[in-house]
Specification:
- By secondary structure, this protein is an alpha/beta fold.
- The protein has a domain of about 325 residues: Glycosidases (TIM Barrel, Alpha-Beta Barrel), CATH 3.20.20.
- The chain contains 16 helices and 13 strands.
- β10, α15 and β11 form a beta-alpha-beta unit.
């Protein structure tokens, strides 16, 4: 029994599930919505599994009532969703507001609140309006002001009811997979330069939006604003080897530190990151600042622009030194580490996803120690299924029990201030480059059925039980 293990959560602990607009909504041209970079990327057949796309996805744009029933069945206290920027502002700017998009999100928010479910809204979850990409996208310095205008529009329109805001989801993933590796939209493969520029502009955009909220809306709306950072847990392959230890530190700096260090610690990138990039740049005849920019005093400061720490965690890696044979000037070369899986870690579904619940606890402790003991929301965490559908998903049930137990230990034994946990995902959806071949849902969606029927997995029922027990338990 979960509760008898002593893993009790406070009564006000946030229990949620997460989704994102492009992955579930469909309706890609419905009611005046503009195109996003993921619409363009998928329609150009850019390497997504079996050329699949999110044109329909779970059709949440038309089937929102079904989603709401799933949310109620789980007993969630919170639901994390993202707004489609191009559904609200088809050309990316508030000069052209799509009222049908505003009506849709108003309905979603109001329905949730009527069911006593609070809302966490992500403003940007990978789906930049194509109109803004045409202006240079996240590589362009001007994108930060455009994002700030969009954020202010959302605060103004929905902020009376939304108390938890995420500005940008996983800037690391967007920068690296979208602009260096080319696996995600907009599909760029600009080795060694674009990713750092994109990350920099995302931090600038986030900081501008946070300052806008802080100065104009916070006093009346009383919400909180952060950004969601993804990171694996990294530990040395050989803990007695100094090179492996420093390699693991470098990997953490280049993943979590890249965005958390400027916001929570110094207002600038980690020294270990800047020096590694400068070293590689000199060897290749570049100036370091040309690749990893400096923050301008003309912009609002980035330090202190998070009211909580939002963490997306999926897996862990063992790290050893060297192993980078890529002669191109790239992030991989700057990092100069090799990541491996521990053979004792089971791998679920996809090759990159080893199941390491204890890694989450270690990462939470690291965040407490390094980033000044912030409030933490785990904004994504999940377990993939591939191949034949298993509604009786016993392995995923065990995963959720083990992971939530590790979160409880982080709180009780390590003193980490974890305020909430959001499972990824409410339901099976379009998993980016993997299309519909990978399933993370608490509910199965039958994409071969015209009705796109939702069926609860056994893991969804287990998660609902954990939530129900937590709500009835004594506080920690």
């Amino acid at each position: 029994d979960f509760q008898s293990e002593g893993n009790m959560f406070p009564r006000d602990f946030v229990w949620g599930a997460a989704t994102s607009a492009y992955q579930i909504e469909g309706g890609w041209q419905a009611d005046g919505k503009g195109a996003s970079i993921w619409d363009t990327f998928c329609h150009e057949k850019s390497g997504v599994f079996e050329n699949q796309n999110g044109d329909v996805a779970c059709n949440s744009y038309e089937l929102w009532n079904k989603d709401l029933e799933c949310i109620q069945q789980l007993g969630l206290t919170h639901y994390r969703l993202s707004f489609s920027w191009s559904r609200l502002l088809p050309d990316g700017t508030p000069k052209n507001v799509n009222q049908r998009g505003v009506q849709y999100y108003n309905r979603v928010i109001n329905d949730l609140l009527a069911c006593k479910v609070s809302v966490m809204v992500t403003l940007y979850h990978f789906d930049l309006p194509q109109a803004i990409q045409n202006l240079g996208g996240w590589k362009s310095p001007g994108v930060a002001a455009l994002f700030n205008d969009y954020a202010k529009f959302c605060f103004e329109t929905f902020g009376d009811r939304v108390k938890l805001w995420i500005t940008i989801n996983e800037p690391h993933t967007c920068a690296k997979l979208g602009h260096e590796v080319g696996l995600h939209a907009p599909g760029l493969k600009e080795k060694g330069t674009a990713a750092y520029m994109v990350g920099h502009n995302m931090l600038r955009a986030h900081a501008m939006a946070w300052h806008s909220y802080n100065s104009v809306y916070r006093a009346t709306q009383k919400g909180e604003v952060s950004l969601a950072l993804n990171s694996d847990w990294f530990e040395p392959l050989d803990p007695s080897c100094h090179e492996d230890v420093t390699s693991a530190e470098r990997d953490l700096a280049f993943t979590l530190g890249w965005f958390a260090w400027p916001i929570f610690v110094t207002g600038d990138y980690p020294d270990i990151m800047r020096s590694a990039i400068e070293t590689q740049s000199k060897m290749m005849g570049y100036s370091g600042d040309m690749r990893l920019p400096r923050f301008s005093k003309d912009d609002p400061p980035v330090l202190g622009t998070a009211d909580f720490f939002a963490l997306n965690y999926y897996t862990s890696r063992k790290v050893t030194s060297g192993g980078c044979g890529d002669q191109m000037l790239s992030m991989k070369r700057d990092l100069n580490v090799e990541e491996v899986l521990d053979p004792s870690w089971p791998v679920c579904g996809v090759s990159w996803l080893a199941v390491v619940p204890c890694g989450l606890r270690k990462l939470l402790k690291y965040i407490k120690d390094v980033f000044n003991n912030p409030k933490v929301y785990i904004t994504e965490n999940g377990f993939a299924q591939v191949g034949p559908v298993q509604i009786e998903d016993v392995d995923r049930c065990e995963f959720y029990k083990s992971t939530i137990s590790e979160v409880a230990k982080a709180m009780e034994e390590d003193g980490v201030n974890v305020c909430g946990y959001f499972a990824w995902s409410l339901m099976d959806n379009f998993e980016w480059a993997d299309g519909f071949s990978v399933r993370f849902g608490l509910f199965h969606v039958d994409f071969s059925d015209a009705e796109l029927s939702r069926t609860i997995y056994q893991s969804g029922q287990e998660y609902a039980k954990i939530i129900a027990k937590s709500k009835s338990a004594s506080p920690i």
